[in-house]
Write a structure and sequence with these properties.
single chain; about 400 residues; alpha/beta; seven-stranded mixed beta sheet; globular
Length: about 400
């Protein structure tokens, strides 16, 4: 089959690789009908997350049609159109039983690669470094789905692929981030980032009862999406001296009730702190540019909630004292997609959530490297590049 493979820092190629096979009786094989880029992919493409190997198939946000199932799969069958959360879960361990799915104890085959840094292994994820399991990704014609009964969710009839696709990762990540905020009537939620996850976090905050959503970004076309598709108020951080001060003014001096970081370790910014972060990151002295996260911490009201969705590694100058002295609550996780899929499919079926506007550019799988280049550099207003094998 054909697949998009990592072959070194900023070196992606479409290659012919071996077709996936049923390995254990809980597996399914999917014919991938659509997959998409994700901002967290850029971290290993750019070399900031190690343990990639040449020839690794990438991609973790996808949907498809079931082609084959193992003998112990009972909930899906050949021909079912399904969407698959990006983290692989067993459904039986303590973490799965507590709906902390991305922390599953049983789906990481290489825990020795995570335990030195994290202390414990997390769940495995498709196409996202050997530190996260080394599973083959979904930018391919076919993909193996372990524990298919837990991880394959049937797509409702009548919903186009473009609307279902982003329920794999962007929508559940954003929805989880808003859920972490414990939103109350009248709350104001500020969201850093107007990419796929940020836009989904903004829309989810309104679905969960926020009165106001304020979106922060620098790209005019993304800020326009936040206004037009979410109804958010917007701040272009390149046009103001201080985002926290602007947010304070917009909220009568109190600050947002909750702040969501949907940016992560390659945040852009302005000023000396950003230059310092970028220099240390380029020298591999730390992994993170923390501009967005630091702003969110400073901007959030006293006693408010910080929800971190961006992927981070090792950050210098993390302002823990601000969090402690302001009495903030911090919630963060990789997405527990299986916990939210029922709600998301219901929202989508009712027309309350339609992420299809994220699919700004469509490519064949053979043009995968071109699609990632456009996505990385945000040319032509690209929010997400979508691939159809």
């Amino acid at each position: 089959m054909r697949a998009l493979c990592w072959n070194g820092v900023n070196d992606l190629r479409v290659e012919t690789v071996k077709d996936p096979e049923i390995i254990n009786p809980h597996d399914a094989i999917l014919r991938v009908t659509m997959s998409t880029t994700c901002g967290s992919d850029l971290h290993f493409i750019d070399g900031y997350i190690p343990t990639m190997k040449p020839g690794d198939v990438i991609g973790h946000e996808f949907m498809g049609v079931v082609e084959d199932v193992g003998p112990e799969v009972s909930k899906v069958k050949k021909g079912d159109r399904v969407v698959v959360p990006s983290f692989i879960v067993c459904g039986q361990c303590w973490y799965c039983n507590h709906q902390l799915y991305s922390l599953c104890d049983n789906t990481h085959p290489k825990p020795e690669l995570q335990e030195p840094m994290f202390g414990y292994p997390t769940a495995g994820i498709y196409g996202y470094t050997h530190a996260f399991g080394g599973y083959a990704g979904a930018h391919a014609q076919y993909v193996r789905v372990p524990f298919a009964d837990n991880d394959c969710f049937k797509a409702p009839e009548g919903l186009p692929d473009e609307q279902v696709l982003f329920l794999s990762d962007a929508a559940p990540t954003g929805y989880m981030g808003a859920d972490f905020c414990n939103i109350q009537p009248g709350d104001t939620v500020a969201v850093w980032g107007c990419g796929g996850v940020g836009l989904m976090a903004q829309q989810s905050a309104l679905l969960l009862g926020a009165e106001r959503v304020i979106a922060i970004d620098r790209l005019p076309e993304r800020l326009a999406l936040a206004r037009e598709h979410v109804g958010a108020e917007t701040i272009d951080y390149t046009q103001v001296d201080s985002v926290p001060e602007v947010l304070k003014e917009m909220t009568g001096g109190r600050g947002p009730d909750a702040c969501i970081d949907a940016v992560g370790m390659e945040a852009h910014g302005t000023g000396l702190q950003y230059a310092y972060d970028r220099a240390k990151q380029l020298a591999h002295l730390h992994t993170d540019r923390g501009e967005a996260l630091r702003e969110a911490i400073k901007a959030c009201r006293k006693g408010g909630t910080l929800s971190i969705l961006g992927v981070y590694g090792v950050m210098d100058k993390f302002p823990i004292g601000v969090i402690m002295n302001k009495g903030m609550t911090v919630r963060t996780a990789q997405q527990h997609g299986q916990a939210y899929m029922g709600r998301l499919l219901e929202h989508a079926s009712k027309g309350e959530l339609n992420p299809s506007h994220l699919a700004t550019h469509k490519f064949s799988l053979e043009d995968g490297p071109k699609g990632y280049a456009m996505f990385k550099h945000k040319t032509d207003g690209c929010v997400r590049a979508v691939f159809t094998p």
